Fold each of these.
Amino acid sequence: MGDLFSQIRDRLKAGEAAVLCRIVDASGSTPRGAGARMAVFRDGSTAGTIGGGAVELRAARLAAELLETGGSRTCSFHLTPGDIEDIGMICGGDVTVLFQHLSPDLLPLLEDIAAALGEASPSWLVTDLWADGRWEMAVDRTGDGPLFTRRPMLAEGGERYVEPLCPAGSVYIFGAGHVGAALARLLCWMGQRVTVFDDRPHALREGTFPQGVRCILGDYEKIGLSLGPDDCAVVMSPGHRMDFQILTQVLKTEAGYIGCIGSRRKIAATRALLLEAGFSEAVIDAIHSPIGLPIGAETPEEIAVSVAAELVAYRSGKLERHG
């Protein structure tokens, strides 16, 4: 998301205009749902995607027209099976796309969006809509109201659209080994807030992680972090003793998700230590271990994909227990 708005900001700084296309409502079988975004520029280039195929092609055409006229509007598209401009949709669906013409005078708004994306607290992009096509957009950092959730929400009357700009919560990775490093890079690319904690200076050396990943060099026996219900803890230390040290602290926080990597033997050893330390079966059973969706992953990068997928499933409410 940050890259999309950065490209729009750069174009506006250069005195150009852009049209921001956002799916605000979707039903049936569609390539993307509410929250998908695409920017269209005067030279015909685009940034982001609202799903490809028929929707994106038609949206790009309309956006090109609006770049010439300077207007903004909301348009609904109905997709049917076998659509000649589609890319293989089997089922039909409906999407409503909001087209917003952005001119250089909106640079302060784009700067505020950029600032919000760089902050550690959650924020939302609020768009008020009028029947005549006018709109007003602003960043909200309070999250006060029923529309301020983890998912994009369109008010029942269609007069207000609220979408998460910067998601709540962070992913804390304990252990910067091969898998931890691969996971941090992947999650950062996905737009997640990531903190990596390790007790080895060489594991956190400069250049290992992309800009935006927070690195903490500390003691596993005293991690000193307070995790909230929107935070995820991923334990990937070199051994079960270290896993145990980390878990005894993380389990006492309000972390919404706790996962631990390891072989079944390592997991069993860690479980025994936790039971001995007084943690209940129920508390231990809540740990996602073995971590990651069962996709047959073997390499560090493949394991990172499986863990990232499980975190996406958790945040979307579709996570099912396994193992």
Amino acid sequence: MALIINGERIEDDFIGEIRTQLERQHAGGGVAEWEALGKDLDTFAKDMVIAQVLIRQEAAQNGPAVSQKEIDQELKRIRERHESKEAYQERLREMNISEKQLRDDIEQRMKVDRLLDQICQEVLEPTEAEMRAHYEENKALFMDPESVCASHIVKHVEGGTILDAQAAFSELEELHARLLEGFSFEAAARHHSDCPDNGGSLGYFSRGTMVPEFEDVVFNLKPGEMSGVFQTPFGYHIAKVVDRIPPRERPYEEVAAQVQQALIDARENAAIDAYTAQLREKADIGEA
């Protein structure tokens, strides 16, 4: 259902995009932000959209001024990121926008950024005592997560037929049997995997780095243990865990800058939320 915010219609497709982004951000696990606030995902996504639109509308009507020179400089920076003028024009066509629309977008973004800066300018930096207290109360947030070093053999089946998928699965099943008989995993990866580099080694990684289907397998393997054939969105795999590093508590001195930034971010978000709440009280918001 679309939202009508001060007469501006926000289609449900856009709200759906925000909802999808939130789901992806939460893919790594833990308590979701909307759950911590006691909200369902749909309500939280709508609240985010309303806040974004209200800030944008306020910035456009009453926000800090942006000079044409500043817009020109930003537009020049964007152009220079492209290899040529033709590549820049092609990118505009792909985005289905004109340079005038791009200029308007630049001005809008700069006004929003400056308004947010104004809202947050009174936020105080945390004291050393506040930082240490926050660290002691939230040590779990500042730990090095568990990680594994793993290798894999993969056969991609994206875009193929059912017969292609069956052939890939059968090939890996036969290869798995050879691996159980002592065939080198690294040699098998170099000669049979669709990702043969480094003998199939993926190095060390923590949860949230790979797709869930892959992590669900490798994080349940012990060092030296090999999986059976399993499927992910990328195809069929055989994985082997080489090493495993347990979670590590990082001392305060090592994460002090991270603690400081976390507190500043929280205070700035609170300031923006309070400002948005004031805008919402005066806004005309409905559904269509």
